Write the structure tokens for this entry.
Amino acid sequence: MLTTIFWKKVWSWVKHYWYFPVIIALILLLFLIRSKAVDKLFELMLKQHESHKKEIDLLKEVSDDRKEKTEKILEGHKEALQEIEKSHEIKIKELEAEKREEVAEVVEEFKDRPDDLAREIAKILSAEYLKKKNKEEE
């Protein structure tokens, strides 16, 4: 049951790999003639196969090297990012400690004047100071 689809596939294969049927036909012809050209054709096919195998191996090696280098770069990037995060956390803690000390100094300085104290703390914390109206002022 050879259908038209089968023959179309065969024709497509022959169009792309035309040299295989030609080489096989030459080998058969030369084998019938008993020439040394058959050995040369076999050698040629073996050399082509070896050349192809070397090229594939080289491509695989290059791909593996690139993958390895990429992984090393990513690992270095992750480590650098972790170091930056750690130093950022340390600086934030230092900044918080400095703000606490500054607030403590301001509280001590303005402990008798609550409005001035609120205003200074708002400045330190980068907040807005809103003066509360007394009920007597209304």
Q: What stands out?
A: The chain is about 80% helix and 0% strand. The chain has one domain: 18-124. The chain has a mean pLDDT of 80.
